[in-house]
Design a protein that fits this description.
globular; 24 helices
Length: 591
């Protein structure tokens, strides 16, 4: 039996003791290790399988961590973690108290830059390179590995544009696998697909930006990678190496079904087959309610447009894209463009539905204000993955959207409590004259069964509803799907509590707020978002106008970044799980 190579590697210095001819065996071990762990613990699979040889070659040739290596996007970094002292704890990946699923500076000196979103590596590595030069260190290497379609983002080109007029010791490695989470789109993708490994290629686009272009090279040929990187380590100034890889390399199903195996959930490590779901009679995911409902509405309303920045599968806009490709657009990793594209369409009488994950919407904040809200344009922002999303952690928790949208004039903010209300709200935005933008936030996951034959029911803008009225001095006010936790909490506690659901965070239901201020002495607000600037603080300001003696307690995400864990664990940590809310009710009642 062949001795394990990976078991003897704690740091890249151990890796460099291996002979080059041993590295192919190491690559096989790393792939098997990742597959075994991810099969049971879940996580990102395809991207990391695709960069195994590249990761080995980089750490073998360059003197990491002195030479600085930045990953883009961070879900490519599993092999990197295994080679930099974390293989023994890799089984804790993305779990509460375990290691992060992305590079994280506080976790390792080899993680030079935190990367959960895309297209930041070139700017970050350039900043490091210029800092090294200013400090007199001209020999240090600065390497940005940019892959999974991140090169097409505007920020990547901003970094390239600046780097090209410097003499920074910067190596950009384009990990070209023609796919992000979904297949890459756009003119740049078509340009790059003309490239073939083994044939010299004049990349005028890159060279026009003053980069030395090298490649393309086979990203799974270790001999070629080692020789190329060794040669580039002696080339000064900004340079770009074009590497062709296969996402999911080494697992047949992951190569053939790259979208599903980006993050496949649990699967059989031996066969690669996905494990069957335990219960097929599950409620639909919120994203599917969006996708199917928008398609249904688009069939009836020719002005409806769908837009997503590189997430057609994750957002379920793919259903509309398949049937109406001329009215549903995947614009690539370009959130700023997506928002302003929607604004342009709205000026011409179209009704654009721009579906973006909450944390990715942060990247388009100026466009929301300047291009949409300032002009009072009727754009519908469908904010997917709002709230605490679980294992992806701090880079992906959608907890800031209420706070950062709340302060924008002309913006309405809605948070339906279940899929039925969400579906009706989509109908309402499609059939109502909108005088400005509206943002609808909804979580990842499932909640309520839907009767798809049930007729739509319009939802009045700015109105809240009473879910439970009791003869009591305590009222709980919640927004969005966290209402489910509140209802469970009320069922757990012997204390009588009234419960009001605010499906609209902006505008707030002033009539109901006055009534609540008059009838209760204690109000608890609950939200799946940050407390600072959030729903609870808005409610507090309004209630105090009518009753300055009210006792008000706001529950939500505290003023710190929340790490990864299951959604249930994180809700409990933040005091917004059913059990935690019931505990708060009890504490308030006995004091």
């Amino acid at each position: 039996m062949k001795a394990s190579l990976l078991s003897h590697i704690e740091t890249p210095s151990d890796l460099r003791k291996l002979r080059p001819e041993q590295l192919a065996d190491l690559a096989q071990e790393i792939r098997a290790f990742i597959i075994d762990i991810v099969a049971t613990k879940e996580g990102h699979l395809g991207a990391s399988l695709g960069v195994v040889e590249l990761t080995i070659a980089l750490h073998y040739i360059f003197d990491t961590p002195r030479d600085l290596l930045v990953w883009d996007v961070g879900h490519q970094a599993y092999p990197h973690k295994l080679l930099t002292g974390r293989k023994d704890v890799f089984h804790t990946n993305r779990q509460l108290g375990g290691i992060s699923g992305f590079p994280k500076r506080s976790e390792s000196t080899y993680d030079t830059f935190g990367v959960g979103h895309s297209s930041t590596s070139i700017s970050a590595a350039l900043g490091m390179a210029l800092a090294s030069k200013l400090q007199g260190d001209t020999d240090k290497h600065h390497i940005a590995v940019i892959g999974d379609a991140s090169i097409a983002s505007g920020m990547a080109f901003e970094g390239l544009n600046h780097a090209g007029v410097t003499d920074a010791n910067l190596l950009v490695i384009l990990n070209d696998n023609a796919i992000g989470i979904d297949p890459s789109v756009g003119a740049l993708k078509k340009y790059l697909t003309k490239v073939t490994v083994g044939k010299p290629y004049k990349n005028t686009l890159i060279e026009a930006l003053n980069f030395n272009y090298f490649g393309p090279v086979d990203g799974h040929n270790l001999t070629e990678l080692l020789a190329t990187l060794e040669r580039l380590s002696k080339v000064k100034g900004p340079k770009l190496l074009h590497v062709i890889t296969t996402k999911g390399k080494g697992l047949k199903q992951a190569e053939e079904n790259q979208v599903t195996y980006h993050a496949p959930g649990k699967f059989d490590a031996t066969t690669g087959d996905l494990l069957p779901k335990k219960n097929s009679a599950l409620p639909p995911k919120f994203q599917d309610v969006f996708g199917y409902t928008l398609l249904e509405l688009a069939r009836q309303h020719p002005t409806i447009i769908g837009i997503t920045p590189a997430m057609p599968t994750g957002s379920s806009l793919k259903y509309m894209m398949d049937e109406m490709p001329d009215r549903a657009f995947d614009v690539g990793i370009a959130e700023q463009h997506a928002v302003t594209l929607a604004a342009g369409m709205a000026t011409q009488g179209m009704r654009p539905y721009c579906t973006i994950y909450s944390t990715f919407l942060q990247r388009a904040y100026d466009q929301i204000i300047h291009d949409v809200a300032l002009q009072s344009l009727a754009v519908v922002f469908c904010i997917d993955r709002a709230g605490l999303v679980g294992a992806d952690g701090a880079t992906h928790h959608g907890v800031f959207d209420i706070a950062f949208l709340n302060c924008i004039p002309n913006m309405m903010i809605a948070a339906p409590r279940n899929e039925i209300e969400f579906r009706n709200l989509l109908y309402t935005t499609a059939t109502t004259i909108l005088t400005g933008p509206i943002a609808i936030r909804y979580p990842r996951g499932r909640g309520t069964m839907i009767d798809w034959q049930q007729p739509f029911a319009p939802i009045p803008f700015g109105k809240a509803t009473c879910l439970q009225k009791e003869t009591t001095t305590i009222a709980i006010l919640s927004t969005g799907t966290i209402a489910t936790n509140v209802q469970e909490a009320i069922a757990e506690t012997p204390h009588k509590v009234s419960h009001y659901h605010f499906g609209f965070i902006k505008p707030l239901d002033q009539t109901l707020i006055q009534e609540i201020a008059k009838h209760y002495t204690t109000v608890i607000t609950v939200e799946d978002g940050v407390i600072t600037g959030g729903f609870g603080q808005s409610i507090q300001l309004e209630l105090m106008r009518y009753n300055a003696h009210l006792r008000i307690q706001t529950l939500g995400v505290p003023d710190r970044f929340i790490d990864h864990g299951s959604t249930t664990e994180l809700h409990d940590m933040c005091g917004i799980s059913a059990t935690a809310i019931a505990r708060t009710i009890h504490e308030i009642t006995i004091t």
